[in-house]
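Hello,

Our lab assistant flagged a job as stuck in the queue for most of the afternoon. It eventually completed. Since we weren't sure the result was trustworthy after the delay, we are filing this so someone can double-check. Below is the sequence as submitted and the structure that was eventually returned. Let us know if re-running is recommended.
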Amino acid sequence: MKLKKLAFNKIQATVFILSIFLAIIIAEYIFTYRDAGYGIVLCLFVTIAIYVLISVIDMEKSFINAAESLAIIPLYVLFTSSLPWFFIDQQFLLPAIYSIILALCFWHMHEKNLELHDVGLKGNDLLKYAMIGILIGIFTGPIEHWVLKPAPSFPTFELKYLLRDIVYMTFFVGLGEELLFRGLIQNDLIKTFDTKTGILGQALLFAVMHMTWRSPLEIAFTFFAGILFGILYHRTGTLTASITFHGMNNVMLVSILPYYFAGLLI
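-- returned structure --
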């Protein structure tokens, strides 16, 4: 006997998407400020609830797609927070974690029959947009450094670590987060609602996922950075500028400025 689905109109479907936003925010807050274990359990519950509900609710396809792209966020919290990372050498931890995020994104793309160009992974004007992103990142990196003031990771500045971090921050952190928040979530929110809602919505979630820094200023910074990333992607139609912007910002943040202000970089 086939179960009849519950029909949702646009208002009800919108409330459903807003509920997912709220659940993700609550889960991340509990994970960061209350109890990481409870936060992980809540992320598991949110993920299961999303997939159960979209299987029993009849609503427009765009809302279902938006819900499924949003489900990647609690999924990646689950994977990155509960796997036994202790067996991995510390220098490979970052690419290992972001490889999980990339895997989840590409798995989602496979399930939705999305091509690379559908999510902004295009080669058009590659150098032009890469340079635009790098130039913006050079100026925003010092702002985030002022907010977080991270200490140098090593006793001395070494070129090999700088080159390693450029690769990590661009092709793992930048690519992973831009693909998830801009290429997938922003795209689906724009298709479901409108451009403004899509850009602001993904920027809010992007900021929430930086709650683990325990800094209100960092949340504010990443919210506005998320808006810039989203506008760049929307205006150019490619993730190139936002990926290089993201990567250079982070390189300035952790790989250059901490050594400069500590007097280790002449």
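-- support follow-up --
The delay was a queue issue, not a problem with the job. The result is valid. The longest helix spans residues 159-192. The beta strands are 6-7, 57-58.
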